[in-house]
Design goal:
The protein has two helices and 14 strands; from the N terminus they run H-H-E-E-E-E-E-E-E-E-E-E-E-E-E-E. The protein has about 210 residues and is mostly beta strands. The protein has one domain: monomeric porin ompg (Porin, Beta Barrel). Strand 6 and strand 7 form a beta hairpin. The longest helix is centred in the N-terminal third of the chain and has 11 residues. It is globular and about 45 Å long. The two termini are about 30 Å apart. The relative contact order is 0.14.
Length: about 210
Amino acid sequence: MNILKKIIFGSILSINSLVFAEVSLSGNVGLTTDYIWRGMTQNDGNPSISGGFDLEDDSGFYLGVWAANVEADDDDTVAGSGSIELDGYLGYSGSFNDDAGYDLGYIAYTYPDYDSWDFEELYLTFDFYGAYISFSAGIDNSPDYTELGYGIDAGPGSFSISYGEYDEKGENVLIGYDWGIGDFTLGFYFYDFQAEAASGMADDDGAYFSISY
């Protein structure tokens, strides 16, 4: 794990009581029938549980950690081996007006059991009137990712659709419906992933369900 990752995780774990007096702390936990990320399963089609914590300052600065169980094949591992994904991130978000805003930051995806999977990205997102465009720049040799999406209130919940292009990997479409019930959110999603021919990956599509708190 490089120095920047150590700084992020060390900062999160060592925040003292004075800092807590100036920021808000929130947590989340979720369960999904499959962990789909950018159109690709991260848990071999099996259920995954996740959770994290966020600290946010009134000015817009934030940092957090998020973890989930994953299962994947890799040249350095035995097929079907399991691991934990542990992400650390920090950034700044703000708004231009009531209907438009931005978010920029840094995220480190780490896998404590398999360091060869680790990678980092810088990201920038603009949202406006329910639509957004997001770009993630891979650091070092990591590929870039671009995504466009739109969400709108529909009935008791909200409908969303997005399209993303992952360099050297493929492109994906995600259609979802989220329904908030008290502090819980139920999500129903359909995804379609079209792999690039040179990636050696396979096309995939399917549906999954999630519940989060």
